[in-house]
Structure formats: structure tokens, C-alpha cells
């Protein structure tokens, strides 16, 4: 009986210490949100947003959204040790000017793409569906160059915005 009591006390103490440590881990998780023209050459008809997620002041994800009259494009850039490692792309085709207004969340993706990078090089591409956005090149080398250029541009904008603590929004889990 005494061993059971000691075991349960140790378990309770261990769980409470783990809970305290995990709440400290989330202390420096935040994101910055940009919905102006600071990261695009020209604003699409329905707008554009960039959300950058940080852990301990290190960028780990950027999510961009571009809204056009014919649909939208979402790209998620994932980083490991501040180096691009993965891009997930989703395109949805719909008439954004339709009446009544269409809920974009109800539309299935027309195209999905996964681009894997290792040490700054595009190593693998996986695509499903029909690609329709004409601004991205078709060869692997051109795709790599375009995504690396966009990634670098978005990283710089995200870090610049995150420098001011007033621009940060704490991530709550």
C-alpha cells in the first residue's frame, strides 16, 4: 500500500511538472499577419494575405493566400532551421463575384502540389489535378528558382514585420 501511494505521488508530481514545462514552451509562439501590398507586386482582385508563424523568434511556416476573380491560390512554406523544406499549394477555381456569394471553403481543390526542398534545391514534386495559374513556370529549374525567390522575399517581409512586438499575435493552443 505504501509503495502504491509513493508511486501515485510521483506520477502526479511528474504530470504537473510536465504541464508547467509545456506551457513554458509555448511562451514564444506567435504569428504576424499582413494584408497590405507590402509582399505582392500587384494586389489580386480579391486581395492577398501573408501569415508568418514563429517559435522562439524562428520562422517555421508562412501561409500566403491570393484571391482572384476566378478562384484562389494558397501556399504554405515550411522551414527547418530557417531553410525552406516544403511548399504545399492549393488552387480552387470558382467565380468569386458570383451572386449569391460562394463559400470558398465549400469548394474542392482543383489542384494540389507538394514541393520538397533539400539544401535549397527542389528535390521532389507531387501534383494532383489541373494546374491553371499561368504565373508559375513549368520546368523544374524555373519552378525551383521562382519558389526560392518568393520564399526569400516572404521571409524578409515576415522577419521585418515581427521585429516590432506590437505586430505579433500570441499563438494559443
Properties at a glance:
alpha+beta; 8 strands; globular; single chain; 173 residues; 28% helix
Largest sheet: 8 strands, antiparallel
Number of helices: 2
- In terms of per-residue confidence, which ranges show pLDDT below 50 for 5 or more consecutive residues? 3-7, 9-23
Numbering strands along the chain, what is their spatial order in the largest sheet? Answer: 7-6-5-4-3-2-1-8
User: Gyration radius, to the nearest Å?
Assistant: 21 Å
Shape: globular
Describe the structure.
- The chain has 173 residues and is an alpha+beta fold.
- It is 28% helix and 38% strand.
- The protein contains two helices and eight strands, in the order αβββββββαβ.
- The chain has an eight-stranded antiparallel sheet, with helices on one face.
Layout of helices and strands, plus pairs?
Layout: H1 2-25, E1 29-34, E2 47-55, E3 58-68, E4 71-80, E5 83-93, E6 111-118, E7 121-129, H2 140-163, E8 169-170
Antiparallel strand pairs: 1-2, 1-8, 2-3, 3-4, 4-5, 5-6, 6-7
Provide a compact summary of the structure.
By secondary structure, this protein is an alpha+beta fold. It has two helices and eight strands.
